[in-house]
């Protein structure tokens, strides 16, 4: 199994350019670096879109594709307002602090950057009693968040052509597994558009899990992915 820190993130240098195509090319460079002719790709959230993009660009190098807690190929407007409402409900009493930190933007300390990330990531867990604990673990060790990278790639994804992406997905012959957490605050109907168009797809929804289903239902996640890859 191989895992890498994407360009501008984690232990990688904060150096662009940042784009979807550049990220796909970086992923293919990792594959070629390890001398792998074909790989089974697993991507989570934005990583699911990245893995899909790589499979569309290099279908011959992908044997299986696992898309975890991603979104679909329809416009964000079809699901994002409901996600935003759910986000603020999940924040609850932490919303005021989140808004205070968010408003300071470039005037935050490193510790405050981490606090903002922990608050934001905590909403992704269905178990509210352990949400902060899980988010703290995600932020340890702390490498920071690359706001420029997030904003640039996010804007590009929002401007993409859903029609063209739908046509390319309909022609993809790579077997695909979609894994959802039933209680992900991103409406799961957001990925319905992708499921409908892929010709070789199966889908597993894990009850009681949020946006990071391997954390809240590790056995269910392991079973679904393991059976698919086998």
TrEMBL record:
Lineage start: Bacteria, Bacillati, Actinomycetota, Actinomycetes, Kitasatosporales
Alphabetical keyword list: Hydrolase
Protein's name according to its UniProt entry: AB hydrolase-1 domain-containing protein
Keyword Hydrolase in annotation: yes
Record Pfam families: Abhydrolase_1
Q: Which residue range or ranges hold the AB hydrolase-1 domain?
A: 5-213
SUPFAM superfamilies xref list: alpha/beta-Hydrolases
The record's Gene3D superfamilies line, in alphabetical order, gives: alpha/beta hydrolase
Task: Give the PANTHER family listed for this entry.
Answer: HYDROLASE ALPHA/BETA FOLD FAMILY, PEROXISOMAL MEMBRANE PROTEIN LPX1
Give the protein family: Belongs to the peptidase S33 family.
């Amino acid at each position: 199994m191989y895992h890498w820190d994407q360009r501008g993130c984690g232990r990688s240098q904060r150096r662009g350019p940042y784009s979807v195509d550049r990220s796909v090319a970086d992923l293919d460079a990792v594959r070629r670096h390890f001398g792998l002719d074909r790989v089974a790709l697993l991507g989570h959230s934005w990583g699911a879109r990245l893995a899909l993009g790589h499979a569309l660009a290099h279908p011959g190098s992908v044997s299986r594709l696992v898309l975890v807690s991603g979104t679909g190929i329809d416009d964000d407007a079809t699901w994002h307002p409901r996600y935003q409402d759910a986000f603020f409900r999940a924040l609850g009493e932490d919303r005021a602090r989140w808004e205070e930190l968010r408003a300071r933007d470039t005037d935050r300390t490193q510790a405050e950057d981490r606090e903002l990330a922990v608050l934001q990531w905590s909403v992704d867990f269905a178990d509210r009693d352990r949400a902060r604990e899980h988010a703290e673990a995600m932020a340890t060790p702390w490498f920071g968040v690359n706001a420029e990278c997030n904003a640039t790639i996010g804007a590009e994804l929002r401007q993409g052509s859903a029609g063209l992406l739908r046509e390319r997905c309909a022609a993809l012959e790579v077997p695909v597994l979609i894994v959802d957490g039933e209680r992900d605050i991103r409406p799961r109907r957001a990925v319905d558009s992708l499921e409908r168009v892929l010709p070789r797809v199966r889908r597993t929804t894990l009850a009681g899990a949020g946006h990071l289903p391997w954390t809240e239902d590790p056995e269910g996640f392991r079973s679904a992915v393991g059976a698919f890859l086998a």
